[in-house]
């Protein structure tokens, strides 16, 4: 796995299809998670030995899910150069720039979700503090005119880290539900890699599984 694919013209000739047909097929495989695109480097087959994530197609974001019950505290907001691991998650190149966002979500005034989010600057341009305090997903759909298409999601149980223990009044022995996700737009570009950690009593996860 992680093998590089030949260029588009070579693949189109090999399979006897047009470049447009080939592009659409590759776009679908990127969205489904079988392929990874890295600008300037090419297209690669995802290593499924190290990444196993089912797909989910109904994505709203915490603001839309909880409505008026939700308030947001922005813990930190800056721009970083991504390392190799983050570059792979975001389908960009190592040392490209991404927003790094840490937010604490309060539900009914109770600190309930800690979110750690990375977004490529060129995919989500001009992101401002007020977007973080309301809804980034709304900014993407309403201001940027993009549709949020799909995500690869992994759910696990974890212990709180030092920041979470402080901000959420937790003990080291407490338990959080962690949701790790990579989210794509309708143009097949990855716009978000995030890890959110939820109080178990506030956590409600639904998905639909398809047999293929």
Structure description:
The protein is of the alpha+beta class and 212 residues long. The protein has helices at 8-15, 19-31, 62-66, 84-90, 129-133, 136-143, 162-167; strands at residues 35-38, 42-45, 55-56, 70-81, 97-107, 110-120, 148-158, 176-185, 190-198. The protein is 25% helix and 35% strand. The strands form two sheets. Strands 3-7-8-9-6-5-4 form a seven-stranded antiparallel β-sheet. The protein has a two-stranded antiparallel sheet with strand order 1-2. The protein is elongated and about 60 Å long. The model is unreliable at 51-59 (pLDDT under 50).
Main beta-sheet strand count, sense and barrel state = 7 strands, antiparallel
Terminal CA distance? 21 Å
Which structural class do the helices and strands define? Answer: alpha+beta
* Strand residues, percent: 25-35%
Largest beta sheet: strand ordering:
3-7-8-9-6-5-4
Quaternary assembly: single chain
Low-pLDDT sequence parts: 51-59
| Count of helical stretches | 7
- Mean of all residue-level pLDDT scores: 83
Name the helicity range. Answer: 10-25%
Q: Can you count the beta strands? A: 9
**SSE string, helix = H, strand = E?**
HHEEEHEHEEHHEHEE
Shape: elongated
Radius of gyration: 18 Å
């Amino acid at each position: 796995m992680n093998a590089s694919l030949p260029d588009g013209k070579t693949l189109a000739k090999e399979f006897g299809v047009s470049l447009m047909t080939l592009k659409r097929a590759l776009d679908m495989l990127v969205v489904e998670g079988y392929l990874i695109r890295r600008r300037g480097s090419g297209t690669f087959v995802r290593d499924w030995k190290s990444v196993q994530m089912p797909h989910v197609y109904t994505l709203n974001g915490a603001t839309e899910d909880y409505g008026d019950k939700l308030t947001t505290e922005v813990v930190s907001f800056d721009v970083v150069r991504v390392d190799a691991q983050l570059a792979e998650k975001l389908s960009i190149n190592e040392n490209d720039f991404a927003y790094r966002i840490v937010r604490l979500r309060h539900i009914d005034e109770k600190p309930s979700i800690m979110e750690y989010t990375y977004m490529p600057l060129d995919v989500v341009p001009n992101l401002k503090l007020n977007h973080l305090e309301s809804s980034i997903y709304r900014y993407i759909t309403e201001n940027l005119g993009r549709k949020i298409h799909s995500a690869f999601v992994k759910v696990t149980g974890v212990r709180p880290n030092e920041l979470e223990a402080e901000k959420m009044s937790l003990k080291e022995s407490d338990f959080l539900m962690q949701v790790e996700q990579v989210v794509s737009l309708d143009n097949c570009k990855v716009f978000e890699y995030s890890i959110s950690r939820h109080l178990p009593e506030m956590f409600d996860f639904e998905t639909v599984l398809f047999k293929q």
